[in-house]
Amino acid sequence: MADDSKRRSIRNRARSAGSTYHHGDLRRALIDGALAIVAEPGGAEALTLREVARRAGVTHAAPYRHFENKDQLLCEVAEEGFRKLTDAMAARAARVRDSLARYRAIGTAYVEFAAANPGHYRVMFGARLDHGHPGLAEAAQTAFDTLVGAIVAGQKAGQLRSGSAMEMALTSWSAVHGLAMIVIDGRLAPTGLPGKSPTALARSVVRLLADGMAAR
User: Fold this and answer.
1) Are 73 and 34 in contact (CB under 8 A)?
2) DSSP 6-30
3) Most CB contacts within 10 A, which of 29, 110, 134, 175?
4) Are 179 and 202 in contact (CB under 8 A)?
């Protein structure tokens, strides 16, 4: 009860501060501040609303105008990440017409997104997230459905083998997610391939996946 009372008090002060402080887009500034922090060595564990507020140049109470707590802010960051990931996969797939090529394009775009946005990506798959958060759950499902849809289209075109599209999607996701984490963690040394770009590595892995799932 004491914690709830404290949070209400902070939110009330934040609302009061909002009448005198004008920020172009406070919510955007807070999300950007969070992304900057999680991209640093301490990661999400180092994030606090007070530090996010400091980087955004607002009072420590201001973040409570938009977010109940740190975990809610992280969920918003993750939700945005999944939506951007979906856009990246869809944009890459739209460049090709062949079903098998679209499947490969989606996998490549996935790894490229992680490599270009490691902070976002780590939050998206962080253990702290409340996966019951409506917006986050929907955004994550949409991203996964993009992959499932590509597999179903490949099966209908006779290019991918028949079977459970969900199991094939899980296999594909596991492979590209694993590669993405290896890339952003800088763990490529044991493979002897540290000089290859994320795009080249992704294309190689996805090609092997596609070969294994191709219709016989």
Assistant:
1) yes
2) HHHHHHHHHHHHHTT---TTHHHHH
3) 110
4) yes
Q: How far apart are the first and last CA of the chain?
A: 63
Residue type, 137: A
Global pTM reads 0.82
Question: Measuring CA to CA, which residue among 143, 138, 131, 153 is closest to residue 177?
Answer: 143
Distance CA 60, CA 14 (A): 8
Each residue's pLDDT expressed in tens, for the chain with a length of 216 residues: 444 544 444 344 444 444 334 455 888 888 888 988 888 877 778 888 898 888 888 888 888 888 888 888 898 899 999 999 999 999 999 999 899 999 999 999 999 999 999 988 999 998 667 767 888 999 999 999 999 999 999 999 999 999 999 999 999 999 999 999 999 999 888 887 778 899 999 999 999 999 999 987
Angle between helices 26-38 and 49-56 (to 10 degrees): 120
* Amino acid (one-letter) located at 116: A
Choose among 185, 212, 190, 188: nearest CA to 200: 188
- Helical (H) or strand (E) element with 44: none
